[in-house]
Design goal:
alpha+beta; about 200 residues; about 25% helix; eight-stranded antiparallel beta sheet; elongated; 8 strands; SH3 type barrels; 2 domains
């Protein structure tokens, strides 16, 4: 009789102990999950900070006003018509390669890649793509050749305008002003410039 009276109390105590242990484990798991979440959040913050620091000094103007230099001639029969869509195959900036572009303008000119020392100081910029003939101060009637020195009127990047540059490459082609949303999600308008061979039809 004594054993039978004690059994319900013993079972109740056992159930209560198991319940409390389960709650305690659940709290520990939640705490552990919260700690992991906080760690991941901090890692993301650190990563963002590193990315931002890595981009310092670039200061490239992704979007533009849409204005073009005086004397720039619109292309009469461009491969990509104004208003059409194209895929960009260039990596001038992060998120550009593979982005879908809308053609805003098409112009026939000579396009150059250049190297120059920014007027603001800092590292020399090499093989910058692109500037066009009409963005050179007091541009000659004839296209420049690799090795020629020029003064820049373009302001695609901080410290570019007024800088002395050396022509690295020169190509007569059609250049395009484009709008696009980068693969990183940034909306870019009136970007200058993309060459015809850096685009493909959608």
């Amino acid at each position: 009789m004594v054993k039978m009276k004690r059994s319900p109390l013993f079972l109740l105590t056992l159930i209560l102990a198991v319940f409390l242990a389960a709650c305690s484990n659940g709290d520990k798991e939640n705490q552990h999950a919260n700690m992991n979440h906080n760690d991941k959040t901090e890692q993301k913050k650190d990563s963002s900070s590193m990315d931002h620091e890595g981009m310092e000094g670039m200061d490239m103007t992704h979007s533009g006003s849409g204005e073009v230099p005086k004397g720039l001639q619109e292309a009469q029969n461009p491969k990509f018509k104004v208003g059409s869509k194209a895929t960009i195959h260039a990596d001038h900036m992060e998120g550009m390669n593979g982005a879908e572009a809308t053609i805003v303008g098409a112009y026939d000119t000579t396009v150059y890649s250049i190297s120059y020392d920014p007027t603001t100081g800092g590292k020399r910029v090499t093989n910058h793509k692109w500037i066009i003939h009409e963005e050179i101060k007091n541009a000659s009637a004839k296209p420049y050749k690799p090795g020629d020195e020029v003064i820049l009127e373009a302001d695609h990047m901080k410290g570019m305008q007024g800088a002395k540059a050396v022509i690295d490459t020169a190509q007569q082609t059609t250049v395009y002003m484009v709008d696009y949303t980068s693969t990183t999600g940034e909306k870019v308008t009136n970007h200058k410039w993309v060459t015809e061979d850096e685009l493909s039809a959608k």
